[in-house]
Design a protein that fits this description.
This protein is an alpha+beta fold. The protein is built from 11 helices and 8 strands. The longest helix is centred in the first third of the chain and has 16 residues. It holds the Pfam family Ketoacyl-synt_2. InterPro entries: Ketoacyl_synth_N, Thiolase-like.
Length: about 280
């Protein structure tokens, strides 16, 4: 590992996007085993939350909790009852689009009073706060925003925490759509996101080892036009080239063809990009 690279193991993945309700479904599509079929994102009930908070949970909160729970469950963290012990990094290019729209509508009326629920759901760290309530977490938590580079910024921060603190860290990157007229200025088509549970050393559940390093190469694109459309229109899905490589190497197809590790390049803050080497277990 060079001084400029960061390494960790991936123990669990969570995923949700239009037409792709979970990681097993997305993995089959990314491997080419199933055809991608576009459909609205389906958000599960925020079952981790107490009933009162569950009723107040926005689309962004339900999305983030579903992603984190799936990744943690895949890594065995739920069974070990240690969700609250996980350090977390939440990354999103914006906050709750529908809530932002409702606030703007209310402020445009003569009665400009905002409900407390609307207000506390409007802040960028709302999803992180609900995660803390649901898991009773007192572990370190970071909340980041870097516009279209938010996934890359979150991945950098999470890997740095794993390297420095030597503790499992859950990255949850997500985005939400805006209704019109905001949609015309920020045309995210639907809500989507990814969660990665990163650990400092290989475990029996590890899927792959990733190494992140700076580069200025062009971002890796996806051959499927519809998946490439998701990658370019939903910032959290700038992660898709990494996930496709992970899915294929997990199945053995890339590993058998190339051996060792393989690489992709992810969009970041121009002219900087992020190179990622993936070495399957």
């Amino acid at each position: 590992m060079s001084q400029e690279s960061l390494c960790a193991w991936i123990d669990g993945v969570g995923f949700l996007a239009p037409g792709l309700p979970d990681w097993p479904t997305a993995r089959a599509v990314l491997r080419g085993e199933e055809t991608y079929r576009a459909a609205p994102s389906l958000l599960p009930v925020a079952s981790l939350l107490p009933p009162a908070e569950r009723r107040r949970a926005s689309r962004v909160v339900r999305l983030a909790l579903a992603l984190g729970l799936e990744a943690a469950a895949a890594a065995g963290a739920v069974e070990a009852a240690n969700l609250g012990d996980l350090a977390t990094v939440f990354a999103a290019s914006g906050a709750d689009g529908h809530n932002c729209h409702a606030l703007c509508e209310q402020l445009a009326t003569a009665d400009r009073r905002i409900s407390p629920t609307r207000f506390h759901n409007s802040v960028h760290n709302a999803a992180a706060g609900y995660w803390g309530i649901a898991t009773r977490s007192m572990a370190p938590c970071q909340v980041l925003c870097a516009f279209d580079a938010s996934f890359g910024a979150g991945l950098l921060d999470a890997l740095a925490q794993v390297l420095v603190d030597r503790r499992p860290t859950l990255l949850i990157a997500y985005d939400s759509e805006y209704p019109e007229p905001l949609h015309s200025k920020r045309p995210i088509p639907d809500c989507a996101g990814v969660a990665l549970l990163l650990v400092p050393a290989r475990t029996p559940r590890s899927l792959a080892r990733i190494t992140l390093y700076p580069t200025q190469q062009a971002a890796t694109t996806l051959p499927d036009a519809m998946l490439e459309g998701l990658r370019t229109t939903i910032p959290a899905l700038r992660s898709l080239p990494l996930l496709q490589l992970l899915a294929r190497r997990e199945s053995g197809s890339e590993r058998d063809a190339n051996g060792g590790s393989d690489s992709v390049c992810l969009d970041y803050l121009p002219p900087s990009q992020l190179g990622v080497d993936v070495e399957a277990c």
